[in-house]
């Protein structure tokens, strides 16, 4: 096998186009996160990859094999669902060994393989327990071991952490990523949690309304968003609407130095990450008078809310970064470095055309 390829995949339910002409390549041995808001089509896309849902159009290739019409049970794909879907009346070991029994593996070999898988997910000491006697994180590891029992070519996980509390979720993200890297198994994870995607993924696919908005490594998605939706969905951003003019952008009566790459007079949406705006004394373009309206001290991060001529914005400082301390009511200047400004065609102006 060499990767999984989706060509023009669509899915329509009645009048709803849940997935709309998606083209994607999932690299061999890589972990790809499908990320997007509720209802954007992530689960439907994953279910089509799994063979649990037939596409309305398009082709799915595994290496050079066309698997579009191959039934789920013949795909050799491992799947972990939100609910884990474990057998509560069986022991941990039997949950893992069960699928091996039914696929014809002898009882002793199934027990042997289940033992190795429980080792892999660090549950060897829990083999004789029943599912009801496990914590959420342990149940998730049983679900992972069970999915891996079939030695799947592709590993599919739908919101695998959603049943876990926040702290455990972060631990399991790291564990799952380390396990996936150790096994080198092609993996697709559906999530609506950007931190989860950024922690685990080699590549993130950002979706909205059944379409792919951007594909790339986590750092590219964060630092080089291709449109306003991605800039808004991944991380935090301040947004301003303006028009292009020679040498930059006009927002209300303010000219910002920038390199917009659009013809003059184009409506644009400008985004800047809170950590890229500066409350400092350094000379440079785009210094605007600012009034501090709110201060949020989050421990590792200090957040200033400002009022400026281009609108309200939030500026963030990491603790230890130094910088002057401001209080509500202080007036100062904020600097918006031209290379920190992301400039997109204004999506609302586009819709109006
Ligand atoms: P969530 O994060 O809430 O699970 P999602 O991104 O996984 O959302 P999907 O579950 O793939 O989104 O749903 C995409 C769209 O397709 C939604 O509008 C949903 O209502 C619709 N949909 C999904 N499954 C069905 C179905 N079996 N019948 C009808 N509509 C469906």
UniProtKB/TrEMBL annotation:
Key word ATP-binding present: yes
A Pfam family hit: ABC_tran
Keyword set includes ATP-binding: yes
GO cellular component: ATP-binding cassette (ABC) transporter complex
InterPro entries: AAA+_ATPase, ABC_SmlMolc_Importer, ABC_transporter-like_ATP-bd, ABC_transporter-like_CS, Mo/tungstate-bd_C_term_dom, NA-bd_OB-fold, P-loop_NTPase, Transp-assoc_OB_typ2
Highest taxon listed in the record's lineage: Bacteria
One GO term of the biological process aspect: quaternary ammonium group transport
Protein name as catalogued: Glycerol-3-phosphate transporter ATP-binding subunit
Gene3D superfamilies: 2.40.50.100, Nucleic acid-binding proteins (2.40.50.140), P-loop containing nucleotide triphosphate hydrolases (3.40.50.300)
Assigned keywords, A-Z: ATP-binding, Nucleotide-binding, Transport
Domain (ABC transporter) ranges: 4-234
Annotated PANTHER family: SPERMIDINE/PUTRESCINE IMPORT ATP-BINDING PROTEIN POTA, SPERMIDINE_PUTRESCINE IMPORT ATP-BINDING PROTEIN POTA
GO-annotated molecular function: ATP binding; ATP hydrolysis activity; transmembrane transporter activity
